[in-house]
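User: Please predict the structure of the protein below. I'd like the answer in structure-token form so I can feed it into my own downstream comparison script.

Assistant: Understood. Taking the following sequence of 194 residues as input:
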Amino acid sequence: MKANLLIRKTISLSLTVAIMAAYSMVTLASNGKFAGEIRVIGSDRSAEVSVNGETVRSNRSIFSTSTIITPANVSAIVDLGSAGKLELAPGTIVRVSFDKDSASALLSSGTVNVLSTENGVQVDSADGTSKLLKAGESSGTAAKQQDDDNDGGSAWWLWALVFGGAAAGMIYVATKDSNRADLGGSGTVVSPNN
């Protein structure tokens, strides 16, 4: 009787130790890093970008504090899940840091466009500026050029000329002595319904 009890306790203890060892290995294997995915967009299928000095193509996992460099003719979209989705313009050098809920970028050159985000993306530029960008906003070289052009562009005077000419034409026709505005042509009108 005592032998059976001793065997049962030994088997129970062995199974408990085996289960604890198996589940602790699963826990130890989890590093807690959140991974994003990069999609490379270029003129051909062999378009590549550099991630931490390694040449990569589309559908590659990236981890926090990755430095991404896009060549002059290639752009990339970095999907960070709920932290956000970023578009990197051609000629961009950026270090992306992120976790499950937030993302930040250190922009050395180029342009970062935020395509989607729940909490905003903190973008620090090499010139010392720092912005919290929402979806649809961008930071970098192209964003600065766009801000400079927000004064109406260099062709605002062309639109003023067009609208001014149209207004002058309407005023001339309205103040003409006759009540008839002759728009030209004195041809014969033929109607198909005779």
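That's the full token string. Helices lie at 2-29, 141-148, 156-175.
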